[in-house]
Structures
1.
Amino acid sequence: MTPALEAWLRKMPKVELHLHLEGSLEPELMFKLAQKNAIDLPFNNVEQVKQAYQFSQLQDFLDIYYQGANVLVTEQDFFDLTWAYLLQCKAQNVRHVEPFFDPQTHLARGINFATVINGIHAALLQGQQELGISSELIMCFLRHLSEQDAMATLALAEPYLDKIIGVGLDSSEMGHPPEKFSRVFAKARQLGLLTVAHAGEEGPASYIHTCLDDLQVSRVDHGVRASEDPDLMERLITSRMPLTVCPLSNTKLKVFSDMSQHNILQMLEQGVCVTVNSDDPAYFGGYMNENFFALANGLEMTADHAMMLAANAIEACFASGKRKSQLLLGLLKHGAAMP
Ligand code: HPA
Ligand SMILES: [Zn+2]
């Protein structure tokens, strides 16, 4: 990557659509909250934490990620976590975000739904007012838990529907196909919520078909294994179904052996609405800019590619039409200064 491309990518206005707030918990904040809340961590210092972040598959990461989330206890903790992420967004010219949170991770530890959502929502509101970052929040169900548990979580969310735009599906993909949650997602849609779901990260392309047919998703999270199924590719291209791709996550979790093997630019050139996202930046080595840099270094992504990826994210986001036009105008102005 040339220094000119790097500088231009840093300044490019960006939209992030696949970010787990619990995955933005940096080791420094993890230690601070662990001490404050008297929570035991299996690490003595930040160095040890970083050493533990070596994964050979999704489950290795999830085990450590759920352990880290144990330090989040009070409404202020959820505020601080979300605010720290928004400050990173500000520093990286990310203008609109649609983060995920995993309420079941916290409910299982006796934390109230209200504590979690009120802390996150207050930070997002302050982010809009003070940082100019617009946002929509998505509540994810953990797919390794039961349908019943997800349904009970949706019931807990009902008094807070004004703070949530949609529901998603994350955690261990293999053995937990989307149809396990058909009824939960139908109920969510009845309540007026949009739907998204992780699929085709480790799981087969058939899971992506099921997300479209059964869960009626507006976006597929990851979705990179779609390229194994030509009929599915045709379907995604024709319908402009967005995929929220996470390049650094995919290489850290060995979905691709190396960035040079990643299929995102191939899919982009074939007409798939692919976007760039950071997933769990505190665990995978970077936020939005680092993901774009990794594509420039590993796949020879050009400024044209980057503009297209950023425009796709604007097309795919759940912001109002007015906000989308503002975001697109900002991106087009930036395009005039292309290296
Ligand atoms: O990439 C992911 N996949 C599934 N579950 C997750 N929870 C956080 N990140 C992920
Ligand atoms: Zn994810």
2.
Amino acid sequence: MSGEQRFDAIVIGAGQAGPFLGATLVARGMKVALIEERDLGGTCVNRGCTPTKTLRKSARVAHMARRASEFGVQTGSVQVNFRAAMERMQRRVEEARSGLQAWLGQLEGLTIIKARGRLAGREGEQFVVLAGEHQLVAPKVVLNTGTRPFVPPVPGLDELPFLDNERLLALRELPSRLVIIGGGYISLEMAQIFRRLGSEVAILETGPRLTAREDEDIAAAVTGMLTAEGIEVNTGVRIERVGKADNDAGVRVQLAGGRSVDGSHLLVATGRIPNTDCLGLETVGLEVSARGYLVTNDRLETAVPGIWALGDINQRGAFTHTSYHDQDIVAENLAGGQRSAAARVGIYAMFTDPPLAHVGLYEADARKLVTEGRRISQAVHAMKDVSRAKEEGETVGKIKLLIDEDSGHFLGATMLGIQSDEIIQAIGLVMASGGTWKLVRDALPVHPTVTEFLPTIIDRRKPLTASSG
Ligand SMILES: Cc1cc2nc3c(=O)[nH]c(=O)nc-3n(C[C@H](O)[C@H](O)[C@H](O)COP(=O)(O)OP(=O)(O)OC[C@H]3O[C@@H](n4cnc5c(N)ncnc54)[C@H](O)[C@@H]3O)c2cc1C
Ligand SMILES: NC(=O)c1ccc[n+]([C@@H]2O[C@H](COP(=O)([O-])OP(=O)(O)OC[C@H]3O[C@@H](n4cnc5c(N)ncnc54)[C@H](O)[C@@H]3O)[C@@H](O)[C@H]2O)c1
């Protein structure tokens, strides 16, 4: 163990919050240690957003090439070079990771330590952190250790070489038939990508529908979009066990009721668990929730003053943008600001093609408010009736807007359709700025875009009733 090193702040975990907060603090003249046991950039850069969104592009190009004749373009038969697509993805990951490394590496005052970090008690006002051979102390500790895949207690799973998001992205050969357990974001994004790259794909979801959080009609539209591409969707299943298929060459998932589903590869995408179990939290008196998350106040401070929990581990978001936003809040508050995570409006996109994007309340939440006497209206518009979508030949999906009739504020929006990952932000910005629907109606839109339809959609809104029937 080397001698004790003193810092103004120690960041454990280089996900989507810690490195950026560290950079801000050193720019203010502080001395900061950034401890990362794997790769800078965390899940997003190395095994999440960056690789999946890069591979998604290869899948989309293959998909559009197959549709080429619809647009008057002749291509001949379309072949996917899986290795080349994976290599393109890896190059992008390496570029992102090395860019981050180069930027962080030249920041004066920032010490990067490649090791697993953990708290080891306190010395007066200072927290002690151990990281490999290093013993560090600082009065401020920022935890940004993210999540890892949750493996469900399915009999037989521990004896199979199943895939998770990381192992899937390391494949060298295209799976001939990919069976996916789980029907959430990772499942659906990867199902469509691998289907378009040439795999057969089957999804097995225990819940009654895919994308459990979404409105029923939206989940149905997502399911329809995936089945139209030849993806087999099984909802409401109960998995009894998994094992090798008869020919030993693949996997067999045995379902309750006697049915089984075989595949060459098995992807398990059934949620994530927080990396809080090896952090030595008990040494400073910090506790986690029943599911392992760190509880924070709206300033993202834990129950122990001087320790912050940022990103997925605080369960205030499970996205790169929420993690990054967390560090922005803390950076400003450390400089005397009064920002709060409570003030932000939840927004996200699932990057199927077309994407599903959402902000604010869901229809079911709004209906509950109606039972409490609120006057709420909803507008729904099919993408097949949006001119730009017709011109693009991509008419899947719909737009839904929820409006509070008394205040004029948007309460939420859901969009399944081309560029909805971008368009949703128009509503998100109006919501965050406290504006009303009139702002959207009166602003001058660009033609021809999907966004230009928002005023028309708003005009067609109807009162929302307490029940959907
Ligand atoms: C397949 C996939 C696709 C995704 N796509 C998107 C997307 O399109 N958009 C989006 O917004 N989000 C996406 N996400 C979610 C996104 O990746 C996370 O929300 C995001 O990475 C934020 O996480 P974080 O900052 O909390 O930590 P992470 O990015 O998880 O990083 C935590 C870091 O801490 C390190 N660490 C953990 N414990 C220790 C320790 N004790 N000592 C030292 N280091 C430690 C880990 O090695 C890791 O590098 C995706 C996730 C997955 C899995
Ligand atoms: N576009 C994005 O922003 C994006 C993309 C990918 C991942 N992510 C993040 O990654 C995280 C994890 O995603 P995920 O898809 O693994 O989890 P998820 O929680 O979104 O979905 C998991 C699904 O698995 C099902 N399930 C659980 N146990 C099962 C079982 N035994 N058999 C069958 N089904 C089972 C659940 O009912 C649920 O529908 C999310 O928090 C998300 O924020 C985000």
